[in-house]
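Minimal example, chain plus shikimate-3-phosphate.
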Amino acid sequence: MNNHRQKLIYLIGFMGAGKSSVGTILAQQMGVPFVDLDTVIEAGQGATIRQIFEQAGEPFFRQIEHAALVEVVRKSPCVIALGGGTFVQKANLDLIMATRGITIWLDCPIEELWQRCSKIDNRPLFRDWESFSALYNQRLPYYRQAEFRIVTSGQSPEEIACEILHLGLF
Ligand code: S3P
């Protein structure tokens, strides 16, 4: 693996997959900064993701999400937790591929995702089971394009980070 590829690690997956929790631990263990894309967006707008969706709508959110990603990829080396919809947008996918970073899909069963998201009321796209499962199924083909897949079911964030480290990529 050449050094250039070791600079950016992208964590991909549906809402509730554990991208932020795993990313924090992974970055700490790798000794590189952790960047949560949603947090960058919220800081830039001075508003929560929910407020941005409610006040400006999803198309505006997708624009600023892309702009935030453009900035964040300059910060290598780092571990980046993407939002659940980031990897699904073609412009983001193209940018991510162009950086030649490592893409890792945290694959979690939909029932577990649903349970986790039910406990925290901060996700504008989390509404009812029908829309949740439809969005999940629509996004699976995109997540499958990630270079690596970690099956996270039943594992703690520490165990998942450990499994990623043991992929021997870094
Ligand atoms: C979204 C997921 C959220 C956030 C926004 C949109 C999505 O991030 O970016 O609410 O489209 O699935 P998480 O995956 O961190 O919840």
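The chain is about 50% helix and 15% strand. The chain has one domain: 8-165.
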